[in-house]
Design goal:
The protein has about 240 residues and is an alpha/beta fold. The chain is built from nine helices and eight strands. It binds NADP nicotinamide-adenine-dinucleotide phosphate. The site of NADP nicotinamide-adenine-dinucleotide phosphate has 30 residues, from helix 1.
């Protein structure tokens, strides 16, 4: 039996990933920072619920203790993420971005990943087949971001892509440090969710595909990579 925690799984890509992994036979913890939203989602999915705010040390420690007491963890999907936008859904430009915006974005997207991984590491180390999936973004790719003509090149924001570039880099470092684990970064693609004011061009079913696949990666499968549903992406 594989036990899986997905952070930020009360909606969007995390919710769809939870739905698919429950169907695949995983015991799934729907992680959410709001108890009511999380409980409702878990109930709909036939999953468990754990309260976890990835920006809060005490919340993450309590979640790790609860999951440990219930039997441990095999798969961690670091999915919770934010992108600060103007109220009309447009992206802050480089001239507008402040250190405070960067801090807020990194607190969830980057420090959140580190905080959760650090807390759950002892549990993952006890698993026979530990897996970590970091939900990154093509916007974090320096290679694509410097390739003229691509949507990633055209994207004007600073905080969100920088945070995902950091996620990519820490994915590589963790994968090297823990070769007994499969640790990969994934790019779901531009998906219709609240994160982008539902402007994405893909469905959550399409977007969750690579997250679900990498959550089920075999022990001899890839680690330290960056993948879309169509294949590897350049860093
Ligand atoms: N949609 C896309 O096109 C796209 C593309 C590439 C990558 N991604 C990545 O995919 C992941 C999921 O995003 P999504 O598109 O599904 O967005 P979403 O629908 O807005 O879902 C984001 C989830 O993260 C949760 N979350 C935010 N801050 C949190 C915190 N501090 N602690 C715990 N949970 C928190 C949200 O909870 P609340 O409901 O409480 O806010 C929500 O459950 C993110 O990492 C995002 O960067 C998305």
């Amino acid at each position: 039996m594989t036990t899986t925690l997905i952070t930020g799984a009360n909606k969007g890509l995390g919710y769809e990933t939870a739905r698919r992994l429950v169907a695949a036979g995983h015991t799934v913890y729907v992680g959410s920072r709001d108890a009511e939203r999380g409980r409702r989602a878990a109930e709909q999915l036939g999953a468990r619920h754990v309260l976890i705010d990835v920006t809060d040390d005490a919340s993450v420690a309590a979640a790790a203790a609860a999951v440990e007491a219930d039997g441990g963890l095999d798969v961690l999907v670091n999915n919770a993420g934010i992108e600060e936008r103007r109220p009309d859904g447009t992206v802050y430009t480089p001239a507008e971005v402040t250190a405070e915006q960067m801090r807020t974005t990194f607190e969830t997207n980057v420090f959140g990943v580190v905080r959760v991984l650090h807390a759950f590491l002892p549990l993952l180390r006890r698993s026979a087949a530990p897996v970590v999936v970091n939900v990154s973004s093509g916007l974090g790719s320096l290679a694509i971001g410097t390739t003229e003509g691509t949507p990633v090149y055209a994207y004007p924001g600073v905080a969100y892509p920088a945070s995902k570039a950091a996620v990519n880099r820490l994915t590589v470092q963790y994968a090297k440090a823990f070769p007994e684990m499969r640790i990969n970064a994934v790019e779901p693609g531009y998906t219709r969710t609240d994160l982008n004011f539902n402007t994405g061009t893909q469905t959550v079913e399409e977007g969750a595909e690579i997250i679900v696949r990498m959550a089920q990666v075999a022990p001899d499968g890839p680690t330290g990579g960056f993948f879309t549903a169509q294949g590897p992406l350049p860093w």
